[in-house]
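Collaborator request, handled under Task 6.
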Amino acid sequence: MGAAPFFVFKICYTYIKYIKNVDSQLTDTTKIALFKGKKVRKVLYHGEWWFSVVDVLEALTDSTNSNDYWYRMKMRVKGEDGIELSTICRQLKLASSDGKKYETDCANTESVFRIIQSVPSPKAEPFKRWLAKVGYERVQEIENPELATKRTRVLYKLKGYSEDWIEKRLRGIAIREELTDEWKNRGARDRQDYEILTADISKATFGVTPSEYKKLKGLHRENLRDHMDDFELIFNMLGERATTEIHRTENSKGFVKLRSDAKAGGSIAGGARKKLEQRLGRSVVTKKNYLNNKESKKKLT
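Structure tokens returned to the collaborator:
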């Protein structure tokens, strides 16, 4: 693969990660994806979707033996480019047609795009052209970050959310990104650390962890924040913004201190929530979600 195609591939992947992060907040996901009208098995591994490589290749090539195609393809790429495609895959168990689960070569989003670059089938060309298009859009966004926000806004509007709700949601996303940047720079090591810190803030803010909150709202794979009303979004932002400011003011370092700050920041939001609840005579924490009725998106704002 030449330098220019590789550059296009990398910026395409960056854009797809951005779209995937937004879209995963807007839609429910299943263990079957549709790729060119054909089923592609996928499995959630360490918080990331991994796709069956042979299913992707079957969809792209119409091969009657996608396992053999994958084997020959790996040999060809190794001989031509010296690249072992197996090294960008992982063996994960997926359900087969007989109902049993077998270890299968799977690839995450980045690796799927890399594999597609090596598919000579004419059916892959439309997909590659699409990659080039979104890659160009991503270049535009790098030069003008406001475009990314506009596209996110459009995605939410297409789902039926009101302008007022979208404004709060986008602000919440920005506050969350600032917080996770602080965690990364101050000693949070991996996804588990982030989940623990997030749960600390949520518990102190709302009295429930994110998993408990999702259960209360009847959610599964959906993004919790996309099912919060105005007050829930506001107190969630307050807890995370307060935590960020505590980190910066006290120059916090290390996971233990970050946890202490997270609980403190959440407690500030939690205290404000309790005062409001006492005045209103009702709980801010609600079972309402946006799953069943599109009109509820308007009613909850």
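The cover message to the collaborator said: "Confidence is low (pLDDT under 50) at residues 1-8, 10-30, 295-301. DSSP finds twelve helices and five strands in the chain. Please let us know whether this matches your experimental observations."
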